[in-house]
Amino acid sequence: MPLTAARFQSNRVVDFKESVIREMTRIALAHGAVNLSQGYPDFPAPVEIKDAASQAIADDVNQYSITWGSKPFRNAIVDYYRHFYKVEIDPERELTVCCGATEGMISAMLALLNEGDEVIVFEPFYENYWPDSQLCGAVCKYVTMLPPTWQFDYEELRRAFSSRTRAVILNSPNNPTGRVFNREEMQLIVDLCEEFDAIIITDEIYEHIVFDGEKHVPPMTLPGGRQRSVLVNSLSKTYSVTGWRVGWVVADPELTASIRKVHDFVTVGAPAPLQQAGVTALHLPDSYYAELGATYQQKRDLLVRILESNGLRCSVPKGAYYIMADISGFGFKDDLAFCLHLIKEVGVGAVPGSSFFSRAEDGRNMVRFCFAKKIETLELAGERLSKLFRN
Ligand SMILES: Cc1ncc(COP(=O)(O)O)c(C=O)c1O
User: Fold this and answer.
1) Which residues contact ligand 1 via a Cβ below 6 A?
2) 207-220, pLDDT tens digit by residue?
3) Predicted confidence (pLDDT) per residue in 82-114, tens digit
4) What are the residues whose beta carbons fall under 8 Å from the beta carbon of 26, sequence distance 6 or more?
5) How far apart are CA 126 and CA 171, in angstroms?
6) What is the C-alpha separation between 167 and 189, in angstroms, rounded?
7) What is the DSSP track for 151-201?
8) Cβ neighbours around 36 below 10 Å, total
9) Burial of residue 57 (number of CB atoms within 10 Å: 0-12, 13-18, 19+)
10) Which domains does the chain have, with CATH numbers?
């Protein structure tokens, strides 16, 4: 009997589409475009941590680590949160080391959400949150952040809560907007979660990439926030090692017990030698983080100048490494048409804004550019972007 493939497609995935970000990267590579789409650096990772990874492999740290993370790496995570935020974490009961923030997020959501639960998501949002919710059978309720400052309206947020709300998914510094939520906003969210008995799943992967004196405030550090936070983080962005796939989740012991159950069966564990190198990463001196923020601020300023001088109006980001630009003046049918033209005729890759919205039309006048690139790469993109005017 011929295979009826459709019969074997789970209802959970029928509405999934290929990630637009990864698709744009592929098309950009195929056309030799300067790739400012997917969020990864084109410059080297710190030499100390590459050496530590080689050393760990040479030392034969090559077998499974403990499922929820090697002891030295969990201890290093504890030191890190004590150092940066004066928060004490129990490495035995409150930490799960995962394969990147991506696995941390889905393991946490699968462990903590049920069919029909509602999750509040600030929109525009990082594209994984919707499929993650779908896999859990949870329903996304969106709260709008409006350009150019990407503020949200407190009343709209409050109205989004209901007796079915189980979690708020928060990402600050934010991809794609560069918004950094301030202490008051974080406290408002914590307070609403207390009132409605919900948790905050907080993706803090860009915590050190902040500009203009901004500072990231983890909800975990606020009154009422410690127990309700499920903090997701990873080595990917802070140490420029997106391919290592090492992340972690910090949560209350009871929540952690559930998260570990999912994590154990989904991945068994994160790469052991790279966790060992993570110990070196998490113990880098403060100067490393200061330089990271300062260097990214220079790259941000350069790309804003390039985009603006080529007619692309920017919302200037306060954190993370993306710029949302307004393309409404160019007369393209939509953001996808603009991005395809940009790749094929101009030679620059970017991501259509609609990929960050629940309704494509809300993002049709926006395009996201990534500045986690060498200065030369950004300058080359600048030379090419000057062709935009000739169309
Ligand atoms: C907001 C956000 N969370 C998570 C990830 C993925 O993180 P990881 O590489 O640790 O899986 C990304 C990658 O771009 C991101 O932008």
Assistant:
1) 39, 100-102, 126, 171, 175, 203, 205, 234, 236, 242, 247
2) 999 999 999 999 99
3) 999 999 999 999 999 999 999 999 999 999 999
4) none
5) 8
6) 11
7) EE-HHHHHHH--TTEEEEEEESSPTTT-----HHHHHHHHHHHHHTT-EEE
8) 30
9) middle
10) 5-45+287-390 (3.90.1150.10), 63-282 (3.40.640.10)
